[in-house]
Automatic annotation (TrEMBL):
It comes from Gymnodraco acuticeps (Antarctic dragonfish). The chain crosses the membrane at residues 40-66, 87-105, 125-145, 157-174. One of its GO terms (biological process) is lipid biosynthetic process. One of its GO terms (cellular component) is membrane. This is Lathosterol oxidase isoform X3. The keyword Protein biosynthesis does not apply. GO terms for molecular function: iron ion binding; oxidoreductase activity.
Length: 245
């Protein structure tokens, strides 16, 4: 198990590696110290943690704090709760990318975090000053980002972009082109993986990643990458056809 430099996300990553990722998710050949693995792990932990936190706190708030009489208001949509949950989870996905970049920067030892107040040159005044600065800075950023995202052209651009991406991806995993960067073969559910889904039926159900197939026990390493795929059978069939003529 890798021991990272002492900061908040290091402890989270250590726990995730020792209990889940190393024994159950990643192949043994993929080192815990690898930058790509750390980024992927941080992305998974960030998204899963944020979604669980959102659903847990949201459910408690909805059932014990929220005034359900508001749902009788004419502007309250019939499926508004469902729509807001879906939109929030999609937002978490996109916001996780800059968040993970900061976490990775921290894990790499670039953080100015400290464990004891005595380690800070500013002492307790510096702690309170940093809290006030964080609130002011994030309020400013959220204001301008929120205002930008409310521009009418942004909604149409994001919707169309995701629609195009999903369709291109769906086509690409059926195109018979098995090229995937080596380190990503165990993560990305590409055409080689999806071909085995069609050939063997009960494997590689995933759309983009192999994570859930690994967790669900349905992951199968692509036979095409082991020299046993459809392309490898074509020369044999051609040779047999030539021999019978």
């Amino acid at each position: 198990m890798t021991i990272y430099t002492d900061c908040a996300m290091d402890h989270v990553l250590n726990i995730a590696d020792s209990s889940i990722f190393t024994p159950h998710v990643y192949p043994a050949s993929w080192s815990e110290e690898g930058a790509l693995r750390q980024i992927v792990s941080l992305w998974l932990v960030t998204n899963l943690g944020a979604v669980l936190l959102f659903l847990g706190c949201g459910a408690l708030n909805f059932y014990y704090v929220f005034d359900h009489k508001l749902m009788m208001h004419p502007l309250f949509l019939k499926n508004q709760v469902k729509q807001e949950i879906e939109l929030s989870i999609i937002s978490i996905f996109w916001m996780s990318f800059p968040t993970v970049a900061i976490f990775f920067w921290e894990v790499q030892g670039n953080s100015k975090l400290f464990d004891n107040i005595s380690e800070s040159s500013l002492g307790w005044p510096g702690v309170f000053l940093s809290i006030a600065g964080l609130l002011f800075f994030t309020d400013m950023c959220i204001y301008w980002i929120h205002r930008f995202l409310h521009h009418k052209s942004i909604y149409k651009a994001v919707y169309l972009s995701l629609f195009v991406f999903v369709n291109i991806w769906t086509i690409s995993i059926h195109d018979g082109d098995y090229r995937i960067p080596g380190p990503l073969i165990c993560l990305i559910n590409g055409a080689a993986h999806h071909v085995d889904h069609h050939l063997f039926f009960n494997y590689n159900y995933g759309q983009y990643f192999t994570l859930w197939d690994r967790i669900g026990g349905s992951y199968r390493h692509p036979s095409a990458l082991m020299g046993k795929g459809p392309h490898d059978h074509i020369p044999k069939l051609m040779a047999e056809a030539a021999h019978t003529q």
